C-alpha cells in the first residue's frame, strides 16, 4: 500500500517479462530518488499466462516491494481473450493493447476521482503507445520507456523518415550484402542486420507508427548509458526532431530467489561453486562436448509454430539432445531449464556467456563483467550483436545475422554448425587468444563504467534527476493553468 505522495505517475509496461522487469526497476529508481513521487504500474495480463508465468511475475513484484509503488492487474473478459487467441502473432499484440484501453481509462478515473491525486504523466512501453490517447483524455503528457537500446531507437526514427518508395526499396535488400550508413553507427550496417520486423510488410507499418507516436511524447526514457553507446546517444540528444532523451541505465533486476524456484536456483549456484574459476540443440551439444570447456546450458522449449505462448520446460532432455550427451558431459557441464541469470553471471566460475543478445541480457552481462559470444535470434537482437562485435568490441561472433522470428521466413532458417559454435566458444574462453583477451579487458572496463554512471554524480543518475524535474514541472504547470 502506498503512503501519501504529492505526484503520481502511471506506468504501462508491455506484458513480456523482459519489458516488465526493466520497467519495474525504473519505477523503483524513481520512487527511491524522490519521496514526492508515487507510481502505479498497470500490468495487462495476457490470456495465455499460465501458473509458471504468473508466479514469475509475482516473484518480480515481491522483490520490487517499495513504499509508494503499487501494482494493479488488468484482465480482459473471456470473449476478448478468445478473440486474441484466434489472431496471428503480428496482429495480437496491437489488438491486445487496444482492448485494454478501457481498463486503463477506468482505473485512472478511479485514481483521480477523490481529487487528491495529481498525475504528472503516463510512462508507456514502446508497444503501448495507443495508451497515449488515454493520457490525453486526462490532460497529462506521455513519456515512452524504451526497453531496447539507443541505436535501435535511432534506427526506428531514421526508418520513419524514409519515403514509401525508399522504404519499399530497402525491404528488397534484406537478403543481400548491401550496407547502409545509419545515424548512431560509426561503421556501415549490413541490411541483413536490421531487425526483420522493420523490413517486413506485415510488421513494418506497425513499427513506423510507433516511431511516429514516440515523436509526440514529452520524453523518451532509454535503458542505456552514454559511455556504452556514445554515437547513438549523441545522435538522439542533438536531433531537434526527437523529444528529450533520458539515458537512465543500466537497469538491472537482481532476483531474490525467495519463491518456488529457490530450490532449483540454489542447486545451480551450488554446482557453480564447485567449478574452477573463470537439429540446433544437437549442434550446440556437439560443440560444447567438442570444446571441452565447462558449461551451464539453459534449454527452454520454444512455442509451437503459429501459437502464442511462453517458453516452457522439456519433460525429458534426452529427447532433444544427442544420445548419451548428458552422461558423457556430467563431470564438466549441467543442462538446466529456467536460470537465475544475473546470479549466474555474477558467479566467479563464469567466464563467458553465449547470448541471444537481448538488451536486458546484454546489460546484465556487461554489469557482471562477462564477455559474450553473440547468437541473435529475433526482434532487434541482430543489430545488438552487430553493435557489440563491430562497433564496441565487447563480444565475439558466433553468428550475427541468424534470424528466427515472426518477421523472417522460418522455412529458410540457416543451421549454425557445431564447428561455428565451437570456434566462437574457443575465442571467448581460451587463454592466449589476443582477440579474446582484448575483449575481456574492454568488458571489464565497461563493467566498471556501468556501476559509476548510476551512482550520485554519474551520467545516468543525473539524467534520472532531470527526468524527475520534468515530472514535477508538469504538475506545477498544470496547476497554474488550471
From TrEMBL:
- Top-rank taxon of the source lineage equals Eukaryota
Specify the protein name. Answer: Uncharacterized protein
Organism per entry: Rhododendron molle (Chinese azalea)
Q: What is the lineage of its organism?
A: Eukaryota, Viridiplantae, Streptophyta, Embryophyta, Tracheophyta
